[in-house]
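S.,

Sequence below, as promised.
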Amino acid sequence: MNDRSAFELFGSQNPYSSALALRNSSYMAWIDQELVRLLDSREPTARARFMHDAFRTFIGSGRYPCLGAKAAVNKGTYRFGVYRSLASLGASAGLARDLCAFAFERPHIEGDYVTFVATFDDLDYLDERRFERALWAQLQALSDLDGPNHAWDPTVDADPESKRFAFSFAGTAFFVVGMHPGSSRLARRFSWPTLIFNAHSQFQALRDNGRYGRFVDAVRARELNLQGCVNPNLAQFGERSEASQYGGRAVEDGWKCPFRP
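The prediction came back faster than expected:
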């Protein structure tokens, strides 16, 4: 399957094809040093190009700690979308279409680190708790749309209290990384609220070939050098629910995830 036929398939067989979804879809790739829309023939807007350039600059900093994100940006193994307000109806419809396309396309993208970046055109998320609420409202909206179409990824649990919880969409388990202007973590302090969707399967692939431990140690060493401390919420999958890690805030004891599958 070549790239063009694959993209056409991911669009034509996508269950999220309402007028609202089509109007708000923004599935883009960095190909030959150019930002290209993949599910339609429209040109990316100047604002989308500007936000994308800012994201590449942010991740491309020599001191940015996440080596997986840097590899994805350097090799172009990521997809990028720009949406209106976080958790709004339009953003949710467009993001559902694009995240579904990514779940379908991801196995065809060659690389150890493949990710989908959803950036939202909001500028007032300077409060960590407000962003956290919006992040979970967005994931809840996606899950509500996805429920009639796809089962939860069977490799993870749907209960956010479970030690094996992970967000699932289009049958694919994702670890979600939230970024926003008010984050206390420097590695997540991006100019616009952003959700990064990393498939769980790529972390399992690193475990299977014995590279995961070295990868985690290297990222944490770089974060320690940047921030002076590592994120206290970090834990290995299966130790405790990963839900507390999505927003980036150091949650208090007894924190309850508001998400309900």
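The two ends are 34 Å apart (CA to CA).

Coffee later?
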